[in-house]
Amino acid sequence: MARVVVVGAGMGGLAAAARLAATEHRVTVLEQSGTYGGKLGELRRDGFAFDTGPSLLTLPRVYRDLFAETGGDLDAAVEVVPVEPTCHYRFADGSEVDLPHDPAAVPGALEAAFGAGAGREWAELMADAARLWELVGESVLQRPLNGVGDLVRRSASVRDLWALAPWRTLRAVGRRLSDPRARMLLDRYATYSGSDPRRLPGLMTVVPYVEQRYGGWYVRGGLRRLGDALFAHCRGLGVRFEFGARVTAVRAAGGGVTLAGGAVVPADVVVSDADARHLYGHLLTDRRARAPRRALARAVPSLSGFVLLLALRGRSPRPYHHRVLFPADYDAEFDALFGPDPRPVPDPTVYVCSPDDPTVAPEGHEAWFVLVNAPRQGQVDWTAPGVAEGYADRVLDVLAERGHDVRDRLLWREVRTPADWERDTGSVGGALYGSSSNGARAALLRPANRSPVPGLYLVGGSAHPGGGLPLVAMSAKIAADLIGPA
């Protein structure tokens, strides 16, 4: 029985703790904050409840497998329900389209909204994405990856490598779509990894493919319930938790970790769910950490997010669980975020999550989570007087300009900025997705799950295979398999 310390109680850390405890390791999770879940946060106030992090679950089977393989039952713990439609999109010209939960119905919806040929073009693009998913879904995303050599060895043929075509961007792939609104819809999936579609590899068409092939899902009561269920499952497996425990150093192999104040927690194995930049840049002095430290210095953190949590009186005449309101000039948003002078986007894309769930708002009211992409703290000083509140007013104005004026319905609002994400999660500048996937190396070659320091492993959104609820759980399985049973 090995002594395992997991640094961080995000979803990747919880998933790793469950898997390791189920194989007879003695597991302690150290979390610097007062709660678990990482970015899967929640705010409750006056009968309203808001998920403050992810609001859509894709690939729920990853969590079903996690529970089943560690002696639990996800569906006995939470209610996972389909979101229908998966998302409602509105464009600057006033046109709209609903993407249905059923993947077979998506081409028809696009055909009806965008005109003849739009559905066929999208279906052809998704057919190619299905082939890419076959190439990367198991062999890359669900196994350890240690550099370009691994990627080349796992490609069965030159044809496979050609299909991956890392030199093509998502924007270049999108030129196959005749309607500019369809291209805009495709570009949006770059933001799922905090990236720029003009630099994101085209193989990331697997993101819309997965969402449409396997559907978008919601956990009744809010996605935070998924975190609650996994935390309770870990406790049932004997995992020990310490909150308010800030790790200041990860020691050499077998040395455990040092806490603020100087106490040492011994460990045979350390699993880090901390941001990889923080781990390699601040917690490790071992000389074997130099190579990943240099690689991370070259990587660009992902964009962040500016969030409004809106408690609204009354009900919307056309409620949607997810809606996206596009600007007229989408490229102007990416210029503002990824250009030489990052700044808050004057006319941003606005994402709204408003679950039709009686448990998240008082009867007859709505809880809206509103997100716009934003530069990281440091690129913009979100703590400067008036910056956050002024931009919050601007986002409400944009909502009104796009047909959703909720200002007269507003009971109260909470504002979350990149500075808040940095403080609460330890991510660099509040980067929501670890490193961006701008460029083939950034997209596929995140820090490895087995570090060059013996006994140290990485999980979570900043490590392979990347950010998002399904991927961080995959990272936990990879790390647990590398460590092996007790």
From TrEMBL:
<dbReference type="GO" id="GO:0016491">
    <property type="term" value="F:oxidoreductase activity"/>
</dbReference>
<comment type="similarity">
    <text>Belongs to the carotenoid/retinoid oxidoreductase family.</text>
</comment>
<dbReference type="Pfam" id="PF01593">
    <property type="entry name" value="Amino_oxidase"/>
</dbReference>
<dbReference type="InterPro" id="IPR014105">
    <property type="entry name" value="Carotenoid/retinoid_OxRdtase"/>
</dbReference>
<dbReference type="InterPro" id="IPR002937">
    <property type="entry name" value="Amino_oxidase"/>
</dbReference>
<protein>
    <submittedName>
        <fullName>Phytoene desaturase</fullName>
    </submittedName>
</protein>
<feature type="domain" description="Amine oxidase">
    <location>
        <begin position="11"/>
        <end position="483"/>
    </location>
</feature>
<dbReference type="InterPro" id="IPR036188">
    <property type="entry name" value="FAD/NAD-bd_sf"/>
</dbReference>
<comment type="pathway">
    <text>Carotenoid biosynthesis.</text>
</comment>
<dbReference type="GO" id="GO:0016117">
    <property type="term" value="P:carotenoid biosynthetic process"/>
</dbReference>
<keyword id="KW-0560">Oxidoreductase</keyword>
<keyword id="KW-0125">Carotenoid biosynthesis</keyword>
